[in-house]
Amino acid sequence: MVKGKVKIDRKTKNLVKRLRPDDIPVILHEDIDEVAAYSLLEKKVKIIVNCAKSFTGRFPALGARILLSNGVTIIDDLGEDIFNQIKEGDLLEIKEDKIYLNGKYLCVAKYLKKDEFEYFYQKSFKEMENLLEDFIENTFEYAKKEKGFILGQFEMPELKTKIAGRHVLVVTRGSSFKKDIKAIKSYITEVKPVIIAVDGAADALLQEKIKPHIIIGDMDSVSEESLFMCDEIVVHSYPNGYAPGLKRIESLGLQAKVVACPGTSEDVALLLAYEKGAELIVSVGSHSSMLDFLEKGRKGMSSTFLVRLKIGSKLVDARGVSKLYTERVSLKYIGVLILSALIPILAILMVTPPFQYFFYLIQLKLRVILR
């Protein structure tokens, strides 16, 4: 039997902020993605209740596989009606194949079994091939409509932060982004790039004691702490100017610039760095593959294709930087290292009889000279 208090949210990225190891997370997340899975694992959950399908089989979404491989029990596909009956703080009990809510029977527990899942997971690779043609067509169809995105039809806001001639690090909540941040810490320390965090990626940077200069996004997942810590906030609004995130910023007594254009906030961040004259743009956690976009519910990648078409000569992936970048060691560090090595050697010599006699002779000679 499993028993615990409910934490519930339609957005998994918001849920994990409130989650404790003894809670039971209730989500409505179809095709759980890799980032969501790892964020749940970080909270040390033992079981999750998903009222949507954790894995539809349309494409090889990685989330459910990651959770199952790490021993997390998944109760799956309970339906939105069940989700609407559960409230934050409710007591949930799971007894074998039955679920009880506040002591009353709720529904049958449908478990996602690892062996059955693996069969459909392997099968999904063939399904993904069928999706590829539609994905390509959607990408180019919308690229024609959104080409103004890179042709200067959308104005970028003026910034206080100086970007021209500097390296810019753009951090997004994507695959392995936390690992990549750690891998390029030496680059950040030495080069001191302008750091642009896309929404909730700012929180991951603060966990590594790295302060973002600019936060850009719709502001739906970034913490208040990050918003108060950064130097500038840029709210990404819809092309018509509607910016739900701006209300949140204003309610906190903060100021923000607004950029109204199509595309993802990651695309806007990359384009902003380019338009402001960045010498080099380093991306962390970027979404670039078909799987990345399908996991986010997108059927194409038009804006991403257009942005990379424009800024390609200045854009590098953080993984390449971590492999190619070698931190220069200063003379100060070398001196400290040599001194640290000499101290134990001198200590040993001082207690060795021949060297004690040698130091005694030097002492006598000094006395004669001083007389």
Give a brief description:
GO terms for molecular function: ATP binding; kinase activity; thiamine diphosphokinase activity. The protein folds into 3 domains: 2-118, Aconitase, domain 4; 146-324, Rossmann fold (3-Layer(aba) Sandwich), CATH 3.40.50; 339-370.
Notable traits:
371 residues, alpha/beta, Aconitase, domain 4, Rossmann fold, 3 domains, seven-stranded parallel β-sheet, 16 helices, 14 strands, globular
Q: Could you please describe the fold and organization of this structure?
A:
By secondary structure, the protein is an alpha/beta fold. It folds into three domains: 2-118, Aconitase, domain 4 (Alpha-Beta Barrel); 146-324, 3-Layer(aba) Sandwich (Rossmann fold), CATH 3.40.50; 339-370. Helices cover 44% and strands 18% of the residues. It has helices at 12-15, 34-42, 63-69, 80-85, 114-145, 177-183, 185-191, 201-207, 224-229, 244-251, 265-275, 290-295, 302-311, 318-324, 331-350, 353-370; strands spanning 2-9, 24-27, 47-50, 73-75, 91-95, 98-101, 104-108, 167-171, 194-198, 214-217, 232-237, 257-260, 280-284, 315-317. The model has no long low-confidence stretch (mean pLDDT 86). This is DUF115 domain-containing protein. Keywords: ATP-binding, Kinase, Membrane, Nucleotide-binding, Transferase, Transmembrane, Transmembrane helix. Residues 319-369 form the SteA-like C-terminal domain. Residues 155-223 form the 6-hydroxymethylpterin diphosphokinase MptE-like domain.
